[in-house]
Amino acid sequence: MRVWIDMTASAHVLVFRPLIRLLRERGDEVEVTAREYAQTLQLLELHGLEAEVIGKHGGRSRLGKLRSLQRRLRALRRWARSREFDIALAHGSHELTMTARRLGIPSSTTFDYEFAWLQHQLGCRAATKVVVPDAIPADRLARYGAKPPKLVQYDGLKEEYYLADFEADRSVLDTLQLDPARVLVVLRPPPDVSLYHRHSNPLFPQTVDFLGHHDGVQAIALPRTEEQRDYVRGLALPSIVLPERAVDAQSLIALADLVVSAGGTMNREAAALGVPVYTTYGGRLGGVDEELIRQGRLKPLTDPRALELQKRDDTRQERMRRDPMEMLELLLSPLRG
Predict the structure, then answer these.
(1) 169-206: pLDDT as tens digits
(2) Is 240 helix (H, G, I), strand (E, B) or coil?
(3) Phi, psi at residue 25, to the nearest 5°?
């Protein structure tokens, strides 16, 4: 079988890494395309995955995003037309599902945040199957044309599937010259360039300032964009550590004392790994985060002074490890009719 996977953001590398391995182990051919955005290309390199780089993020403006989308759709069609793919897989890449539909290729898309309205209007309607966590109420997806049998839902978090074989590598602490005696905090900024996160949210800068001046803390900031990196670097805060390249963020999260993130994937990775995690997300919370908050696995943050800055003890929460083959079978379901 010939499989096409498109990656347009950093988290997609993590989601598809074990699935690509499973596909190749059973003899399938996998080709990957990627968009230049955030740490996507660096993470592909870090995980030893080759990809054809096609297009880049359109920036903050709607016009820039539209032009980038149009250029990338044309380029993807040219690239994929003669390759005779049997199926195409994406994590929210509407460019893939739209191109696959145009070329008559069955496709699946997966995601775990349901309020990216324009992205899902395009991507879900074009996809053959839409695969999402069962924490997302099905009626929220009907507006995108995703209803059973097109809509397929799975148990748990996607992170519990792709982290099933994960064990933390403690060398990441040495690489970043971190002091394990201090409280280690992982910081992830908001997705500023995303259309679904237009709200001005002063909470994350306040948190950076609070932790950056705290003597007992080392806060490792993991920016999404060069603009965010320049902002954090310009603050020159004594307790902020700013890696120059993509790092093994999952090991960093697993070894941290807490995580503060304004995004989604890193919050859920921390929850999946049993690490205390706070969200500063300024948009509308999705069903997955709502469920994690109900379970006490994710805490909303309204004031950085409310952070519980203490070392974790050696006891670890028992992790839920789910079989990534189950996820793969759902994504391949368009082939079964």
Answers:
(1) 999 999 999 998 999 999 998 876 554 444 557 888 89
(2) strand
(3) -65, -30
